[in-house]
Design goal:
Elements (H helix, E strand, L loop, with lengths): L29 E7 L12 E7 L39 E12 L4 E5 L11 H7 L16 E4 L4 E8 L5 E5 L4 E8 L14 E2 L6 E2 L1 E4 L3 E8 L4 E7 L2 H6 L2 E6 L1 H7 L4 H9 L25 E5 L3
Parallel strand pairs: 3-6, 5-14
Antiparallel strand pairs: 1-2, 3-4, 3-15, 6-12, 7-11, 7-13, 8-9, 8-10, 8-12, 13-14
Length: 308
Protein backbone atom coordinates (compact mmCIF):
# COMPACT_ATOMS: atom_id res chain seq x y z
CA UNK A 1 0.00 0.00 0.00
CA UNK A 2 1.27 3.57 -0.66
CA UNK A 3 3.34 5.00 2.20
CA UNK A 4 4.40 8.65 2.38
CA UNK A 5 7.99 9.15 3.55
CA UNK A 6 10.75 11.77 3.50
CA UNK A 7 13.63 9.46 2.67
CA UNK A 8 14.68 5.87 2.06
CA UNK A 9 17.31 3.78 3.85
CA UNK A 10 18.77 1.06 1.65
CA UNK A 11 21.52 -1.53 1.79
CA UNK A 12 23.66 -2.62 -1.17
CA UNK A 13 21.51 -4.14 -3.91
CA UNK A 14 18.17 -2.95 -2.53
CA UNK A 15 15.68 -1.03 -4.67
CA UNK A 16 12.51 0.99 -4.16
CA UNK A 17 9.91 2.27 -6.60
CA UNK A 18 8.76 5.74 -5.63
CA UNK A 19 6.46 8.47 -6.93
CA UNK A 20 7.80 11.97 -6.30
CA UNK A 21 5.43 14.93 -6.31
CA UNK A 22 7.06 17.73 -8.27
CA UNK A 23 6.61 21.45 -7.67
CA UNK A 24 4.08 23.23 -9.86
CA UNK A 25 6.57 25.97 -10.70
CA UNK A 26 9.80 26.00 -12.71
CA UNK A 27 11.09 29.15 -11.01
CA UNK A 28 13.91 27.23 -9.30
CA UNK A 29 16.03 24.15 -9.77
CA UNK A 30 16.98 22.04 -6.73
CA UNK A 31 19.71 19.69 -5.55
CA UNK A 32 19.03 16.16 -4.37
CA UNK A 33 21.09 14.47 -1.66
CA UNK A 34 22.19 10.88 -1.11
CA UNK A 35 24.18 10.19 2.06
CA UNK A 36 25.91 6.82 2.34
CA UNK A 37 26.89 5.47 5.76
CA UNK A 38 29.08 2.45 6.45
CA UNK A 39 30.18 1.16 9.85
CA UNK A 40 32.84 -0.85 8.03
CA UNK A 41 34.57 2.33 6.78
CA UNK A 42 34.59 4.41 9.98
CA UNK A 43 38.25 3.71 10.74
CA UNK A 44 39.27 4.88 7.25
CA UNK A 45 37.37 8.15 7.62
CA UNK A 46 35.30 7.32 4.54
CA UNK A 47 31.84 7.63 6.08
CA UNK A 48 29.51 9.29 5.48
CA UNK A 49 29.84 9.80 1.75
CA UNK A 50 27.57 12.48 0.29
CA UNK A 51 26.39 12.49 -3.32
CA UNK A 52 24.39 15.33 -4.89
CA UNK A 53 22.84 16.07 -8.25
CA UNK A 54 20.60 18.57 -9.98
CA UNK A 55 16.82 18.33 -10.26
CA UNK A 56 16.30 20.48 -13.34
CA UNK A 57 12.93 22.18 -13.74
CA UNK A 58 14.15 24.71 -16.29
CA UNK A 59 17.49 25.27 -17.98
CA UNK A 60 19.13 28.35 -16.54
CA UNK A 61 16.83 28.64 -13.53
CA UNK A 62 18.63 29.50 -10.27
CA UNK A 63 19.31 26.70 -7.84
CA UNK A 64 17.40 27.18 -4.61
CA UNK A 65 19.29 26.02 -1.55
CA UNK A 66 17.21 24.21 1.06
CA UNK A 67 18.67 23.30 4.39
CA UNK A 68 18.49 19.54 4.82
CA UNK A 69 16.91 18.52 8.12
CA UNK A 70 18.66 16.08 10.42
CA UNK A 71 18.02 12.41 9.68
CA UNK A 72 16.07 11.95 12.91
CA UNK A 73 13.63 14.66 11.83
CA UNK A 74 12.67 12.80 8.67
CA UNK A 75 10.07 10.08 8.21
CA UNK A 76 11.84 6.83 7.23
CA UNK A 77 9.96 3.65 6.28
CA UNK A 78 10.45 0.45 8.24
CA UNK A 79 10.28 -2.48 5.82
CA UNK A 80 7.76 -4.19 8.07
CA UNK A 81 5.48 -1.15 7.78
CA UNK A 82 5.18 -1.46 3.99
CA UNK A 83 2.21 -3.52 2.83
CA UNK A 84 1.77 -5.10 -0.63
CA UNK A 85 -1.01 -4.03 -2.96
CA UNK A 86 -2.18 -7.57 -3.76
CA UNK A 87 -2.87 -8.15 -0.05
CA UNK A 88 -1.13 -11.53 0.13
CA UNK A 89 -1.16 -12.73 3.72
CA UNK A 90 1.74 -14.26 5.67
CA UNK A 91 2.67 -17.69 4.38
CA UNK A 92 2.22 -20.59 6.85
CA UNK A 93 5.57 -22.11 7.84
CA UNK A 94 6.64 -25.69 7.04
CA UNK A 95 10.35 -25.40 7.86
CA UNK A 96 12.50 -22.97 9.82
CA UNK A 97 16.21 -22.30 9.22
CA UNK A 98 18.09 -20.10 11.69
CA UNK A 99 21.45 -18.58 10.72
CA UNK A 100 23.68 -16.52 13.01
CA UNK A 101 26.53 -14.25 12.01
CA UNK A 102 29.70 -15.23 13.89
CA UNK A 103 33.32 -14.17 13.77
CA UNK A 104 35.95 -16.88 14.09
CA UNK A 105 39.63 -17.57 13.69
CA UNK A 106 39.75 -20.35 11.11
CA UNK A 107 42.08 -23.22 10.39
CA UNK A 108 43.74 -21.10 7.69
CA UNK A 109 44.45 -18.47 10.42
CA UNK A 110 42.13 -15.91 8.82
CA UNK A 111 39.76 -13.89 11.02
CA UNK A 112 36.44 -13.87 9.22
CA UNK A 113 32.71 -13.54 9.75
CA UNK A 114 30.34 -16.20 8.45
CA UNK A 115 26.84 -17.61 8.74
CA UNK A 116 27.01 -20.45 11.26
CA UNK A 117 30.49 -21.98 11.38
CA UNK A 118 31.62 -22.98 7.87
CA UNK A 119 32.86 -20.57 5.22
CA UNK A 120 31.21 -21.07 1.83
CA UNK A 121 33.75 -22.10 -0.79
CA UNK A 122 33.18 -23.48 -4.31
CA UNK A 123 33.66 -27.22 -4.75
CA UNK A 124 35.03 -29.19 -7.72
CA UNK A 125 31.64 -29.99 -9.31
CA UNK A 126 29.23 -27.07 -9.71
CA UNK A 127 26.39 -27.68 -7.26
CA UNK A 128 23.72 -27.59 -9.98
CA UNK A 129 25.43 -30.50 -11.75
CA UNK A 130 25.51 -32.50 -8.52
CA UNK A 131 21.80 -31.86 -7.93
CA UNK A 132 21.03 -33.08 -11.46
CA UNK A 133 23.30 -36.12 -11.53
CA UNK A 134 23.10 -37.74 -8.09
CA UNK A 135 19.60 -39.22 -8.32
CA UNK A 136 17.91 -39.81 -4.96
CA UNK A 137 21.11 -38.88 -3.10
CA UNK A 138 20.67 -35.30 -4.29
CA UNK A 139 18.20 -34.91 -1.41
CA UNK A 140 21.05 -35.43 1.08
CA UNK A 141 23.00 -32.24 1.76
CA UNK A 142 26.21 -34.20 2.50
CA UNK A 143 26.84 -35.01 -1.17
CA UNK A 144 27.44 -31.34 -1.98
CA UNK A 145 30.40 -31.03 0.38
CA UNK A 146 30.55 -29.16 3.71
CA UNK A 147 31.97 -26.03 2.03
CA UNK A 148 28.66 -25.32 0.25
CA UNK A 149 26.58 -24.75 3.41
CA UNK A 150 23.82 -26.59 1.54
CA UNK A 151 20.20 -26.78 2.71
CA UNK A 152 17.95 -29.14 0.75
CA UNK A 153 14.36 -27.88 0.50
CA UNK A 154 11.22 -29.86 -0.29
CA UNK A 155 9.08 -28.78 -3.22
CA UNK A 156 6.44 -26.19 -2.25
CA UNK A 157 7.43 -26.06 1.42
CA UNK A 158 7.18 -22.62 3.00
CA UNK A 159 10.61 -21.90 4.44
CA UNK A 160 11.17 -19.37 7.20
CA UNK A 161 14.73 -18.04 7.40
CA UNK A 162 15.87 -16.18 10.53
CA UNK A 163 19.18 -14.29 10.28
CA UNK A 164 20.74 -13.10 13.55
CA UNK A 165 23.36 -10.37 13.48
CA UNK A 166 25.17 -9.88 16.82
CA UNK A 167 27.74 -7.61 15.14
CA UNK A 168 27.87 -3.82 14.95
CA UNK A 169 28.20 -3.99 11.13
CA UNK A 170 25.05 -4.03 8.99
CA UNK A 171 24.73 -6.88 6.49
CA UNK A 172 22.51 -7.01 3.40
CA UNK A 173 21.47 -10.47 2.19
CA UNK A 174 20.40 -11.30 -1.35
CA UNK A 175 18.18 -14.31 -2.08
CA UNK A 176 18.66 -15.71 -5.58
CA UNK A 177 15.65 -17.39 -7.16
CA UNK A 178 13.05 -15.96 -4.78
CA UNK A 179 11.42 -12.94 -3.30
CA UNK A 180 10.79 -13.27 0.44
CA UNK A 181 8.16 -11.88 2.78
CA UNK A 182 9.64 -9.60 5.45
CA UNK A 183 7.84 -10.82 8.59
CA UNK A 184 9.68 -9.40 11.59
CA UNK A 185 12.79 -7.55 12.75
CA UNK A 186 14.04 -6.93 16.27
CA UNK A 187 16.99 -6.69 18.66
CA UNK A 188 19.57 -9.47 18.82
CA UNK A 189 22.61 -9.40 21.07
CA UNK A 190 24.20 -6.31 22.54
CA UNK A 191 27.55 -4.63 22.86
CA UNK A 192 29.52 -3.58 25.91
CA UNK A 193 31.80 -1.39 23.80
CA UNK A 194 29.62 0.08 21.02
CA UNK A 195 27.26 2.96 21.77
CA UNK A 196 24.31 2.56 19.44
CA UNK A 197 20.60 3.29 19.58
CA UNK A 198 18.75 0.09 20.50
CA UNK A 199 17.00 -1.71 17.64
CA UNK A 200 13.22 -1.52 17.89
CA UNK A 201 11.03 -4.58 17.48
CA UNK A 202 8.96 -4.40 14.26
CA UNK A 203 6.22 -6.84 13.22
CA UNK A 204 4.76 -6.83 9.72
CA UNK A 205 1.16 -5.98 9.06
CA UNK A 206 -1.30 -8.44 7.51
CA UNK A 207 0.21 -8.18 3.99
CA UNK A 208 4.03 -8.31 4.35
CA UNK A 209 6.38 -6.68 1.91
CA UNK A 210 8.23 -8.88 -0.61
CA UNK A 211 11.95 -8.34 -1.30
CA UNK A 212 14.84 -10.28 -2.81
CA UNK A 213 17.40 -8.35 -0.74
CA UNK A 214 17.01 -7.61 2.97
CA UNK A 215 19.09 -5.52 5.34
CA UNK A 216 20.02 -6.90 8.77
CA UNK A 217 21.32 -4.04 10.86
CA UNK A 218 23.84 -4.36 13.64
CA UNK A 219 22.50 -6.18 16.73
CA UNK A 220 19.31 -7.09 14.87
CA UNK A 221 17.53 -10.21 13.62
CA UNK A 222 15.23 -10.52 10.63
CA UNK A 223 12.63 -13.18 9.88
CA UNK A 224 11.56 -13.82 6.27
CA UNK A 225 9.55 -16.47 4.42
CA UNK A 226 9.30 -17.87 0.90
CA UNK A 227 7.66 -20.80 -0.84
CA UNK A 228 10.03 -23.30 -2.44
CA UNK A 229 8.25 -23.25 -5.81
CA UNK A 230 11.28 -22.67 -8.05
CA UNK A 231 13.33 -25.91 -8.32
CA UNK A 232 17.01 -25.16 -8.67
CA UNK A 233 20.21 -24.29 -6.83
CA UNK A 234 19.96 -20.84 -5.28
CA UNK A 235 22.61 -18.75 -3.56
CA UNK A 236 21.89 -16.59 -0.52
CA UNK A 237 24.80 -14.31 0.32
CA UNK A 238 25.85 -11.06 1.92
CA UNK A 239 25.74 -8.28 -0.66
CA UNK A 240 28.95 -6.70 0.66
CA UNK A 241 31.26 -8.08 -2.00
CA UNK A 242 34.23 -8.81 0.27
CA UNK A 243 31.94 -10.70 2.70
CA UNK A 244 30.55 -12.80 -0.15
CA UNK A 245 34.09 -13.51 -1.36
CA UNK A 246 35.10 -14.58 2.14
CA UNK A 247 32.23 -17.05 2.36
CA UNK A 248 29.27 -15.36 4.07
CA UNK A 249 26.76 -17.44 2.13
CA UNK A 250 24.60 -20.56 2.01
CA UNK A 251 23.07 -22.54 -0.86
CA UNK A 252 19.48 -23.71 -1.07
CA UNK A 253 19.11 -26.94 -3.05
CA UNK A 254 15.46 -26.69 -3.94
CA UNK A 255 13.40 -29.75 -4.89
CA UNK A 256 16.21 -31.72 -6.59
CA UNK A 257 13.74 -34.54 -7.42
CA UNK A 258 11.55 -32.12 -9.38
CA UNK A 259 14.60 -30.39 -10.85
CA UNK A 260 15.88 -33.68 -12.33
CA UNK A 261 12.54 -34.25 -14.09
CA UNK A 262 12.04 -30.73 -15.41
CA UNK A 263 15.46 -29.38 -16.35
CA UNK A 264 18.74 -30.28 -17.97
CA UNK A 265 21.95 -28.41 -18.62
CA UNK A 266 22.44 -27.23 -22.22
CA UNK A 267 25.17 -29.22 -23.95
CA UNK A 268 27.03 -25.99 -24.70
CA UNK A 269 27.45 -25.41 -20.96
CA UNK A 270 28.66 -28.97 -20.42
CA UNK A 271 31.20 -28.57 -23.23
CA UNK A 272 32.38 -25.24 -21.81
CA UNK A 273 33.00 -26.88 -18.43
CA UNK A 274 34.86 -29.78 -20.03
CA UNK A 275 37.16 -27.39 -21.89
CA UNK A 276 38.05 -25.84 -18.52
CA UNK A 277 38.56 -29.19 -16.83
CA UNK A 278 35.48 -28.78 -14.61
CA UNK A 279 33.68 -32.09 -13.92
CA UNK A 280 29.94 -32.11 -14.59
CA UNK A 281 28.74 -35.19 -12.73
CA UNK A 282 28.94 -36.72 -9.28
CA UNK A 283 29.07 -35.29 -5.79
CA UNK A 284 30.97 -32.14 -4.85
CA UNK A 285 34.27 -33.97 -5.40
CA UNK A 286 33.22 -35.61 -8.68
CA UNK A 287 32.81 -39.03 -7.07
CA UNK A 288 29.80 -41.25 -6.46
CA UNK A 289 27.92 -41.65 -3.20
CA UNK A 290 29.42 -39.94 -0.15
CA UNK A 291 33.05 -40.31 -1.21
CA UNK A 292 34.35 -36.74 -1.05
CA UNK A 293 38.03 -37.64 -1.40
CA UNK A 294 39.90 -35.13 -3.52
CA UNK A 295 37.79 -32.22 -2.28
CA UNK A 296 39.83 -29.35 -0.81
CA UNK A 297 39.32 -29.41 2.97
CA UNK A 298 36.60 -27.23 4.42
CA UNK A 299 37.77 -24.26 6.50
CA UNK A 300 36.53 -24.71 10.06
CA UNK A 301 36.80 -22.39 13.08
CA UNK A 302 39.37 -22.98 15.79
CA UNK A 303 38.25 -20.14 18.09
CA UNK A 304 35.37 -17.69 18.33
CA UNK A 305 36.00 -13.96 18.46
CA UNK A 306 33.98 -11.16 19.95
CA UNK A 307 31.76 -9.50 17.34
CA UNK A 308 31.36 -6.36 19.42
Amino acid sequence: MPLEVDGLSMGPGQRYSVIVTAHDSDEFNYMYNVTSYSDALVSQGLTPMVYTGLINYRDGAPVKTIQSPADEQLVWPEETAIQVLDKQAELPVDRRIELTMKKFTYTNQEHLTTLGTTLYKPVLVPTLYTALSMGDLAANSSVYGPQTNAYVLKHLDVVEVVINNPERVDHTFHFHGHNVQVIETGPYGNSSTISREPVAHQQSGPWPMWRDTVQVRGFEFIRVRFRADNPGVWFMHCHLSWHEYNGVAVVFIEAPDVLQKQQSVPKEMVEMCKRQGIPTQGNGAGNQGFDLSGLPPAIYPISVESAN
